[in-house]
Amino acid sequence: MQLQELIEQIQQKKSMLCVGLDVDLEKIPKHLLELDDPIFEFNKAIIEATQEYCIAYKPNIAFYEAYGLKGWQALQKTINYINEHYPEQFTIADAKRGDIGNTSKMYAKAFFEDLNFDSVTVAPYMGKDSIEPFLQFKNKHAIMLGLTSNEGAKDFQFLENKGTLLFESVLKTSRTWVNSRQLMYVVGATKSSYLKKIRQILPDSFLLIPGVGAQGGNLKEVCEHGLNSTYGLIINSTRGIIYASQEEDFAIQAAYNAKALQEQMEPYIT
Ligand SMILES: O=C(O)c1cc(=O)[nH]c(=O)n1[C@@H]1O[C@H](COP(=O)(O)O)[C@@H](O)[C@H]1O
Q1: Are 62 and 97 spatial neighbours (Cβ–Cβ below 8 Å)?
Q2: Catalytic residue IDs
Q3: pLDDT tens across 77-117, in order?
Q4: Domains in the chain, start-ordered, CATH in brackets?
Q5: CA-to-CA distance for 70 and 88, rounded, in angstroms?
Q6: Which residues line ligand 1 (CB under 6 A)?
């Protein structure tokens, strides 16, 4: 997908919401477990209920790999369903990949060519040649971990060298890589106080912001500090939407929570 299409969708729907599709068979409504493919049926119902309020979907690949072949097939059916019925939605394979170049190229082929996602999340620890292979596919994007939402982010990401924090060096260096315009970055909503600083390094990039809802991130702060001239934010909520109810009304409740987040975003989209 071209960035312009994503920006237009944000404008039209007055939303920057991304719905995470992290399906845990222990959390989905019990009546779905009797169906042939409960993971896909759950996703289909969530997508139908939320698509008018969101601009992106983000299945976390771990939740599919955990169920082996059946999980992978459900992932394939889910991405095909979105691409066929809602091609305007930006799709994110949350896989956090990154390896020597030769291997990264195969990860990129898996998510961009075989599954046809618009983007994949990547981890920057192995550097330039582990990320550049993801940037060689037309209209595809790699979303690199910048400053993550979790507690352990402080173990390495805040290490300081000559007044610069490690995550800042990573962001700055990544801008020198080939096709770096195809990079987006993950910044946890729990770290929104750093967004101003991050925007100085990355004024034009899209940021994927997970961590509102279940992890306690503040949507208002994210919008106030993170927006740029093309909006530049994809704000994810997963458990807060897809597990709003574990009863038969799960899709209605998911829509209700997605709409509530969309309405909080609307004033920031002019
Ligand atoms: O890359 C991510 O999406 C991600 C990065 C990060 O720093 N923190 C984070 O929570 N995530 C993912 O975002 C989702 C958050 O889910 P909820 O906390 O349920 O909204 C999960 O799929 C996480 O793996």
Answers
A1: no
A2: 96
A3: 999 999 999 999 999 999 999 999 999 999 999 999 999 99
A4: 3-265 (3.20.20.70)
A5: 27
A6: 20, 22, 60, 94, 121, 148-150, 186, 188, 210-211, 213-215, 236-240
